[in-house]
Amino acid sequence: MMEFTSAHMASILFGVFMLLLVMGVPIMVALGMAAMACFMVAGTDLNTMIQMGASSMTAFPLMALPSFVLAGALMEAAGISRRLVNIAENIVGTLPGGLAVSTALACVFFGSISGSGPATTAAVGMLMIPAMIRRGYHPGYAAATAATAGGIGIIIPPSIPMVIYGVAGQQSIAKMFMGGIIPGLLIALALTLIHFFLCRKLPPDGQAWSLRALLDSLLKGFWSLLAPLLILGGIYSGMFTPTEAAVVAIFYTLFVGVFIHKELTFKAIMTSLNTTSWLTGRILVIVFTAIAFGRVLTEYRIPIEIANWILGYTENVYVVWFFVVILLLFLGMFMEILALILLVTPVLLPVMVAYGVDPIHFGVILVCCCAIGLSTPPLGENLFISSGIARIAYEDGVIKALPMVFVNILLVTLLVVFPQLVLWLPNILMPSVAGG
After folding, report:
1. Is-contact 246 71, C-beta < 8 A?
2. pLDDT on residue 185
3. Per residue, what are the HEC states of the chain?
4. Quick check: is 113 in a domain?
5. What angle do CA 246, 385, 389 make, to 5 degrees?
6. Is the bond into 158 cis (omega within 30 degrees of 0)?
7. Between 397 and which of 143, 253, 340, 375 could a Cys-Cys bridge form, CB atoms 3.0 to 4.6 Å apart?
8. CA–CA separation, 304 and 307 (whole Å)
């Protein structure tokens, strides 16, 4: 039987994958068929592929995925998102662009319990987009504000994409969570500044600032604010792993929603379970096929060959970073986030490690680029959601989102140049944590 080299297998793997994508085949099917083609050419029993995919479904960190999805859905139904938005509005007060700033701040709050960009956009956007339009904001600007701020939901921990990266790249999920804190806050600050600049000629809006109103909103939202403190505090104190924290979040939300807020009904719980099963099933199918795809990459040392090929052209890590970020932003325009992470991690992570890049640094940059992809056409999931809420054409939201997307790209550049913005917290507070 002919012995296949890395170059031969890479040609078959990526050739079949790209051909199927061009034909319009769903990415999960394209990943699986490309891996299957390599297994068949190499004469490997296809049962191996099935066993490999099935065993990957039992990975302990992967259990955090449905748990965080369910926790986020329940928290929205329990009235937690509404209380967090109210706190954000009372913190900002009456300023030019105040409602836009409140939206960004509310996304930080909700993102710290949902782990999902689209979920954050929907939860905050349903409350803030109509309010912004009533106050005279252009509907496209309101939609763009919620969409770009919603991207913070996958950068601020807990983050579902970071869980997937941790599983795919065999990295500490807890360290990934910690690495996303400063970048997430910096993005919120950058969006705040751009809103102040773009809205500087508008009359002040938002709720008039009042210490009494702020304290009242904090009192009413006490149990809502306690959720991220419980989840993240438990992880970073070592009381439980990120996977266990997701389960704790579910029981906490059920307790608050049923016994304290008394807004979580049986119907809402069933709807949340339905949403969770649909979304989790969709993700796990992608994981199943991506694991097989990654196995072919690993067995034939394709990422190492790619790294050696790149090293032959340049040893400057910033040149490599430039092309990697451009590639990630481009792919983010067309690919669903989790599929993108599962596809590029086994290919690019070894390349970046060969250049001395910390895997946590690369992972956070990868997730930040994915967050930008949520607001860029043609896919732009966040923009589709926010445009629907604002009842405008998708293109109107895209145009208004351009300045905010540009600011996010500048911030990613800053994170690349100064890796300690990502690594400082994980290295100081969690130097020896391994896995989630």
Report:
1. yes
2. 95
3. CCCCCHHHHHHHHHHHHHHHHHCCCCHHHHHHHHHHHHHHHHCCCHHHHHHHHHHHCCCHHHHHHHHHHHHHHHHHHCCHHHHHHHHHHHHHCCECCHHHHHHHHHHHHHHHHHCCHHHHHHHHHHHHHHHHHHCCCCHHHHHHHHHHHHHHHHCCCCCHHHHHHHHHHCCCHHHHHHHCHHHHHHHHHHHHHHHHHHCCCCCCECCCCCHHHHHHHHHHCHHHHHHHHHHHHHHHCCCCCHHHHHHHHHHHHHHHHHHHCCCCCHHHHHHHHHHHHHHHHHHHHHHHHHHHHHHHHHHCCHHHHHHHHHHCCCCCHHHHHHHHHHHHHHHHCCCCHHHHHHHHHHHHHHHHHHCCCCHHHHHHHHHHHHHHHCCCCCCCHHHHHHHHHHCCCHHHHHHHHHHHHHHHHHHHHHHHHCCHHHHHHHHHHCCCCCCC
4. yes
5. 115
6. yes
7. 143
8. 5
In this prediction, residue 235 carries a pLDDT of: 79
Helices 317-332 and 359-373: crossing angle in degrees, nearest 10, is 30
Instruction: Give the pTM.
Output: 0.80
Token reading at 89: 């509005």
Least confident of 62-66, 194-198, 326-330, 349-353: 62-66
Contact of 64 with 436, CB cutoff 8 Å: yes
- Residue 176 within any structural domain of the chain: yes
199 Cβ contact partners less than 8 Å away, ≥ 6 residues apart: 96, 97, 100
CB 140 within 8 A of CB 396: yes
The answer as to whether 297 is a domain residue is no
Among the listed residues 126, 143, 139, the one whose alpha carbon sits nearest the alpha carbon of residue 85: 126
Number of structural domains the chain divides into: 1
Q: Who wins on pLDDT, 80 or 142?
A: 142
- The answer as to whether 373 is a domain residue is yes
435, pLDDT greater than 50: no
Distance CA 36, CA 10 (A): 13
Sorted by sequence, the CB contacts under 8 Å of residue 254 that are 6+ apart come out as 74, 264, 269
Expressed as residue numbers, the domain containing 111 is 60-283+302-429
Say if CB 398 and CB 380 are below 8 A apart. Answer: yes
